[in-house]
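Project outcomes to date are best conveyed with an example. Our students and postdoctoral researchers have been running inverse folding experiments weekly, and each run begins with a structure described purely in tokens. The record below, which covers 194 residues, was selected by the lab manager from last quarter's runs and is presented without edits.
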């Protein structure tokens, strides 16, 4: 029985080796071999970094026409300077409904993105600060470096800060989408009262 099995195993191994030599010994080394669903190898669409004769500049990746914005994109036309910060403060208000769900989402987002520095209660005592990072002022008791008490920061000022950052705080625009920023703003207002 054992001898028979050994012969079978040897036979199978020899067959597999022979078969792989036949399959891999194609002359054209760049050939992909047998193709299943060939469109996956030879695209009909242009790759974005590929030359393209259909456009004047010969490139596939085109710059969007001036004045256009992506679908779903929310504009925030307040520049990253003090004038933009002050103007946002007077003109911009939270478009979201003040309800328990938005507040709970805001709390979760704040805990993820902001609490490492600002602390879970917004007192400027997050874990990063405990390791030597410059402490942000408390939302309820501190003073803003741009003037006024932190507890009086408006919707627009907080949104502007999340979008652009300020001094030691970087921009969170690429991590937190506009709607998420507004949920966070809602929760920061709650922390201003602590
Ligand atoms: C890397 C640490 C860090 C993180 C993370 C961080 N901040 Fe800050 N934040 C700071 C520091 C430091 C300041 C004080 C900067 C200054 O005024 O010089 C600050 C200031 C602020 C201010 C006051 C702005 C003003 O006008 O005075 C607000 C509001 C604020 N942060 C909100 C947030 C929110 C919301 C998040 C999360 C999306 C966040 N921060 C994440 C470090 C951080």
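After processing, the design step wrote out the following sequence:
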């Amino acid at each position: 029985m054992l001898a028979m099995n050994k012969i079978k195993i040897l036979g199978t191994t020899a067959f597999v080796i022979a078969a792989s030599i036949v399959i891999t010994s194609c002359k054209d080394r760049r050939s992909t071999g047998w193709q299943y669903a060939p469109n996956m190898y030879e695209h009909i669409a242009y790759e974005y970094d590929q030359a393209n004769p259909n456009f004047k500049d010969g490139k596939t990746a085109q710059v969007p026409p001036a004045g256009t914005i992506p679908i779903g994109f929310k504009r925030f036309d307040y520049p990253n300077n003090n004038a933009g910060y002050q103007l946002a403060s007077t003109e911009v208000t939270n478009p979201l409904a003040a309800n328990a769900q938005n507040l709970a989402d805001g709390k979760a987002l704040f805990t993820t993105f902001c609490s490492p520095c600002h602390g879970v209660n917004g007192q400027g005592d997050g874990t990063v600060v405990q390791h030597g990072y410059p402490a942000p002022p408390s939302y309820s008791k501190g003073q803003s470096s741009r003037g006024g008490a932190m507890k009086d920061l408006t919707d627009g000022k907080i949104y502007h800060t999340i979008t652009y950052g300020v001094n030691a705080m970087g921009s969170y625009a690429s991590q937190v989408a506009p709607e998420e920023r507004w949920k966070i703003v809602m929760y920061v207002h709650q922390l201003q009262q602590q």
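The mean pLDDT is 91. The pocket of heme C is lined by residues 113-114, 116-118, 128, 134, 136, 144-146, 153, 157-158, 161-162, 166-169, 172, 176, 184, 188 (CB under 6 Å). The training component of this project remains on track.
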